[in-house]
Amino acid sequence: MGEFVELEAQDGVRMPWNVLPGTKQESSNCVVPVSAIYTPIKPFPNMPVLPYSPLRCRNCRSVLNPFCTVDFSAKLWICPFCFQRNQFPPHYTAISDDNLPAELFSQYTTIEYEEPQMISSSSPSPMIFMFVLDTCMIEEEMAFLKSALSQAIELLPDNSLVGLITFGNLVHVHELGFGETPKTYVFKGSKDVSKDQLLEQMGFFLKTPKPPTSVIAGAKDGLSSDSISRFLLPASQCEFTLNSVLEELQKDPWPVPPHQRASRCTGTALSVAACLLGACVPGSGARIMAFIGGPSTEGLGSIVSKNFSEPIRSHKDIDKDSATHYHKAVKFYERLAKQLVHQGHVLNLFACALDQVGVAELKVAIERTGGLVVLAESFGHIVFKDSLRRVLQLGDYDLGLSSNGIFEVNCSKDIRVQGIIGPCASLEKKGPLCSDTVVGQGNTSAWKMCGLDKATTLCLIFEIAKKDSTDTTIQQPSSYQFYFQFLTYYQHSGGQMRLRVTTLSRRWVAGLGSAQDLIAGFDQEAAAVAMARLVSFKMENEAEFDPIRWLDKALIHLCARFGDYQKDSPSSFSLSSRLSIFPQFMFHLRRSQFVQVFNNSPDETAYFRVTLNRENVANSVVMIQPSLISYSFHSGPEPALLDVAAIAADRILLLDSYFTVVIFHGATIAQWRKAGYHNQPEHQAFAQLLQAPRDDTDEIIKERFPVPRLVICDQHGSQARFLLAKLNPSASYNSDSPLPSGDVLFTDDVSFEVFLDHLQRLVVQ
User: Fold this and answer.
1) In sequence order, what are the residues at sequence separation of 6 or more whose Cβ sits closer than 8 angstroms to the Cβ of residue 509?
2) Neighbours of 561 (CB within 10 A)
3) Residue 122: pLDDT over 70
4) What positions does the domain Sec23/Sec24 trunk occupy (predicted)?
5) Confidence band, pLDDT 50/70/90 cuts, at residue 180
């Protein structure tokens, strides 16, 4: 798998099939879809940034790249996608074999352009944050939120523009530009507010006449900069006013009768924020930072009634179509998502409550705008506080927030794009590249990415369109190479507009004997992640879909296609080392929180899936199959099998399941710790053993977003469930032979050994 990681380090791309099946039938026999998992703005230390415009093919608009055929004497280059001959412009006249421009260097398959006029433009666009605060919370939670925001405001760049909206039963838009006394504009929470009504009621045209244009969008359409700066001010100018407003901010005064939920108009508040930003700063990459502490019960987008007698929807209610508010709320947030994508704005959500707040409904708006989501139990929780700091901080571990992205794909003929599963929205650019089958955001070859960062990762699903089959294995003549080109035009975190170009080449094989070539190019980790995204998408969008059955059938067909076995002899079954870990990934995916929604709320499931759909392969694999490291006196830290057999009384285990990091002390270790041996000078080795997993945990937490929850527990303790739930139940209460450690899992889940045994029997039939 090392060579695939090296390819990712060069281009930010992982593909399940690095040698492609050559025909439509071959592709369908391969089960795992032909796909690419791509991180558009992954940082590369050695990637050049070219200070000039890219050279494009005059036919298909692809960019000059190392796979182009170049005729130096005639000063021509031939596009590998459409075979169009293109003349080099005059400033390329000096090129030769010994004097190549950077974009033709074979090692620069990924390169960036920053045009000179963009560099010399007056000043880069500032970042814009619209804080939307829920005030229907207990005083303690309000205090936590105000404290976190006060610290966050100090991290904002001085030139970044800031606005503030608070809401409960009513929506309050704070006029920060009027520093003498607090001044707010109030909107009724149960009523939808259009952009025109908002501009009218907030006095945008008191001093200047209303412009004749039908669409009012920013200063260029007649809004005076003075009226915009009443609500959006540079952080350096409004820090004092903002802190004063936060200090005086009280819990929503609207009375809440007994046995009723608070009246909370989340949807209306977000709609007002979107309209205000759309009027003042369209196309700016502004971010709505929504801090929500409970379910929406008032106005559009409400997810439950105010009566406590009506419970909040569960997975069962959604499946049975008995969640009365769900579909209406999703439709509302789809409209909001469309508006935000059109304006180029991002919705970030920080949901902190013991109850559900509506992440399942909001998911569509967060995902299509490329927003971030953080889910925690309280605004005082370290997960929320550290995640918020990570969003705003600059430095070694910043997220590299970028905006206004447009992502385009170009590929050789005989390949079609079915769609993208990930944080983007279709721009509906239809063309010959679009497949009739749509997966995720499809029917287009261009997508809008309102918000993206260094880790944002897309999963492109392709379809092989070539129908005719050949009888011989095709080796490697260049005419049978496939080419892909990914173009990402985006506003860099520094404010400049850039174009990132990644061009890839893969070969295809078909006919007899192609199986060995396909296996040689199979990336098991990328395949597991593509299947995880696909099964999550199908669970959300296909009625009566059975994920376990679908995954099992896919695995059986894949093993039957590429395994070695004699018919009706399970013991003869074997898989190539290139495929041997894939059944293990599928076993853990079947048991993961993406497929097993029992015991998780719709909000939690939506949160897990949003995060899976934006993370790279390495992080996604940890979500599917957590990593386990063992620490003991006998050896240094070493990887352990994700199995109940890994538990021992004299061992510490560190489980990383991405959302939760667990430090698990064996029974003997826990006793010694409680006795305080680690504080005694003669037991320094024990103190170091206890400290080692803590140091490794700090490293994990430092680099991860959202910040994971840390659980420190002991064997036989109640919180040990966080570890036990992820382990392979090789010893359960109904096993024949108990383990020497004495730990058994009380579960009816089958173990990996039983799963593999059944798989072998079904494959060889």
Assistant:
1) 19, 20, 21, 22, 473, 474, 517, 518
2) 15
3) no
4) 124-391
5) confident
